[in-house]
Amino acid sequence: MLLAKGYEVHGLIRRASTFNTARVDHLYVDPHDPKARLFLHYGDLSDGARMVTLLADIKPDEVYNLAAQSHVRVSFDEPEHTADTTGVGTIRLLEAVRLSGIETRFYQASSSEMFGATPPPQNEETPFYPRSPYGAAKVYSYWITKNYREAYGMFAVNGILFNHESPRRGETFVTRKITRAVAAIKAGKQDLLYMGNLDAVRDWGYAAEYVEGMWRMLQADEPDDFVLATGGNYTVRDFLQIAFEHAGLNWEEHVRFDERYLRPTEVDALVGDASKAQEKLGWKATVHTPELARIMVDADIEALKHAGNNWIDSVDLASWKN
Ligand SMILES: C[C@H]1O[C@H](OP(=O)(O)OP(=O)(O)OC[C@H]2O[C@@H](n3cnc4c(=O)[nH]c(N)nc43)[C@H](O)[C@@H]2O)[C@@H](O)[C@@H](O)C1=O
């Protein structure tokens, strides 16, 4: 079930609109679900007045705010732009919902980056300590979403998602950078891969499952905030090893260090505890980091065979087959 290529969204929708439809090139329609859903993507949140018109026109049952400058390293180079899209954009959208007078449910894409320097495991009670302009902007958006829930009685929720990846992941994020390189090295098109900090620990899950979790948050009886994570604990080095090994390669022969990929302040370890989502939403990740790495390597090897042609991965999850 596909919604949008570009952001790694896989969703369950009947009618979806996006602020800039040009950005959505794949749409899946589930004929059994009559709700209208609006998904906002990168850079959509610059014009508050236009958003009011759009919302009043579409009258979506659900709004998913996925719009952000979402690259942590880039947020150090473009801190003001990041604050504007990732932070202030959220209040523009919440205000547009309020001013348009529509009844809708609002999802805010909050992030595990908000926990930053606070050691794992992290859950909904863990204090925030952001370590980047991106993380700081997400903390603002988290609190303003909560404030609109309390101040105006909006059904507004924060999904605090740990790293979620898929073959549709942007090419400059570490997982996709690695799996694309594995495919290219395997095909003899590349020899070396330049990387930054290999010691960082992340909890990488499969985006398809996380988007289902986002959807579950908006079907709940009451608005609340939820962590989505696998609970896994892997370093970038582990991911390299699993991905290269899957293609029969030795990562140490191909990986080199480049300090340009280091960050002024790093988030050392993010490992989520999603027991609240399991208890209240019935959500649990089934794909863990090693399987995810293999899905992504296989997809990038397949994608090379289709270079220049339209090709998109499909989701093969047992829970989606009914
Ligand atoms: C939840 C959160 O997840 C993502 O943020 P991120 O964790 O920063 O993701 P990433 O894939 O850029 O880095 C992961 C780790 O990998 C290290 N690393 C080493 N060498 C390279 C490298 O060469 N490139 C990159 N990108 N990272 C590298 C890097 O230093 C970091 O420790 C975003 O979706 C964000 O929007 C979000 O919300």
TrEMBL record:
<keyword id="KW-0456">Lyase</keyword>
<feature type="domain" description="NAD(P)-binding">
    <location>
        <begin position="2"/>
        <end position="296"/>
    </location>
</feature>
<comment type="function">
    <text>Catalyzes the conversion of GDP-D-mannose to GDP-4-dehydro-6-deoxy-D-mannose.</text>
</comment>
<comment type="similarity">
    <text>Belongs to the NAD(P)-dependent epimerase/dehydratase family. GDP-mannose 4,6-dehydratase subfamily.</text>
</comment>
<dbReference type="InterPro" id="IPR016040">
    <property type="entry name" value="NAD(P)-bd_dom"/>
</dbReference>
<dbReference type="GO" id="GO:0008446">
    <property type="term" value="F:GDP-mannose 4,6-dehydratase activity"/>
</dbReference>
<dbReference type="InterPro" id="IPR036291">
    <property type="entry name" value="NAD(P)-bd_dom_sf"/>
</dbReference>
<dbReference type="Pfam" id="PF16363">
    <property type="entry name" value="GDP_Man_Dehyd"/>
</dbReference>
<dbReference type="GO" id="GO:0042351">
    <property type="term" value="P:'de novo' GDP-L-fucose biosynthetic process"/>
</dbReference>
<protein>
    <recommendedName>
        <fullName>GDP-mannose 4,6-dehydratase</fullName>
        <ecNumber>4.2.1.47</ecNumber>
    </recommendedName>
</protein>
<dbReference type="InterPro" id="IPR006368">
    <property type="entry name" value="GDP_Man_deHydtase"/>
</dbReference>
<keyword id="KW-0521">NADP</keyword>
<dbReference type="GO" id="GO:0070401">
    <property type="term" value="F:NADP+ binding"/>
</dbReference>
